[in-house]
Design brief:
12 strands, two-stranded antiparallel sheet, alpha/beta, single chain, binds ligand FNR
């Protein structure tokens, strides 16, 4: 059992991973001012190419998707070319990489896109300000019109197409952590009265529209989705949310995605709204495809969780920042360097 996580894993008929340890998506805010990946980013990702699958840091699908400084994009040819250098370097070292497609919804800031509307399901803002740029306080968003929703869906699909052009092996749609898609899925952020609100089916519609558009663009084998069924970040918990995720996951079971990935920092956290289950317990009970667990796991606790069939693959975040050679270290049973927030100031 010791080495099972380090053996190849077939995600589906077209993608085989060299092991079951994924590098979690980790925003680093270090792309250049045109949101193009830099040489330092090429080297940073290439150093981690022995992960089973690298998920890129969240990458914005269009200008008004931005809520943090210097987060990379996938909507200009310069950005596509910049990512191509990253994926080439990862492939050269035998690795595989998905792009995480991102729109932050109500925590976007017009500072980043020269004014204009902040779009969200409903005109409900959150308190606070842009991390690293505290002077930029969050605004009350505008409820997206149906036409704007259709354009957003089309822009996710276009960004997925761009990701493949940039050499990515697939895409992970960022549906977690309180950003745009997650905002549609929770009652605290979605009070719409049209076909995108009020019922589990309607509240799941935007997520499923995006999933289906991305599948049409790149195929289900290359499409994955990250979800946070428990509200924990920029979102208030509501006992009605579970029914939305019950509906959504049943619909996803029909779609044969590459995988579904939990979005949580600590998977021992239990949510009252999920019948006191953890993120992975809840997802495992409702989703039948490949499930990626995440959230404060060590290699040993991940090994145990996978051998207990709690999920199929593990995503490792902070330890991968602290240990570019994470896979070598866990293979040789060597001690890991502890993660520290100060490590975020530099790409190593
Ligand atoms: C994150 N996380 C994150 N999640 C995501 O879906 N997209 C992202 O871009 C980011 N960015 C990010 C940056 C930093 C600095 C941290 C620490 C975390 C969450 C991340 O993918 C993961 O879920 C958590 O870090 C929990 O896993 P670990 O770190 O306990 O293994």
């Amino acid at each position: 059992m010791t080495t099972d996580l380090l053996k190849p894993y077939k995600l589906n008929n077209s993608i085989e991973l060299q092991n079951r340890v994924m590098m979690a998506p980790l925003t680093r805010c270090m792309s250049d001012d045109n949101l193009v990946p830099t040489k330092a980013m090429v080297d940073y990702y290439a150093r981690r190419a022995d992960a089973g699958l690298i998920i890129s840091e969240a990458t914005i699908i269009r200008p008004d998707a931005q809520g943090y400084p210097n987060t990379p994009g996938l909507f200009t040819s310069e950005q596509i070319q910049g990512w191509k250098k990253v994926t080439d370097a990862v492939h050269e070292k035998g690795g595989k990489m998905f792009a995480q497609l991102w729109h932050v919804g109500r925590v976007a800031h017009p500072y980043f896109f020269d004014g204009g509307d902040v779009l969200a399901p409903s005109a409900i803002g959150v308190e606070g300000s842009v991390p690293r740029m505290r002077e930029l306080t969050y605004q009350t968003p505008k409820a997206a019109t149906i036409d704007e929703i259709k354009q957003l869906v089309a822009d996710y699909a276009k960004a997925a197409e761009n990701a493949l052009e940039a050499g990515f092996d697939g895409v992970e749609i960022h549906g977690a952590n309180g950003y745009l898609i997650d905002q549609f899925l929770h009652y605290a952020a979605n009070t719409r009265e049209d076909e995108y609100g009020q019922t589990p089916e309607n509240m799941s519609r935007f997520a499923l529209d995006v999933v289906d558009a991305v599948i049409s663009s790149v195929g289900a084998d290359k499409t994955a989705l990250r979800l946070s069924p428990g509200a924990y970040f920029n979102m208030e918990e509501d006992s009605r949310d579970k029914a939305v995720f019950d509906f959504l996951l049943a619909a996803l079971n029909e779609r044969e995605l590459a995988y579904v990935h939990g979005g949580i920092f600590d998977d021992s956290m239990r949510f009252a709204s999920l019948d006191n289950q953890t993120t992975s317990e809840y997802l495992r009970a409702h989703y039948t495809g490949n499930l990626v667990g995440v959230g404060s796991y060590s290699f040993d606790t991940a090994k145990q969780a996978i051998s207990d069939n709690k999920f199929d693959l593990i995503a490792i975040g902070r330890p991968f920042i602290a240990n570019p050679d994470y896979i070598i270290k866990v293979t040789n049973d060597e001690e890991l360097v502890a993660y520290d927030e100060s490590m975020l100031s530099e790409l190593v």
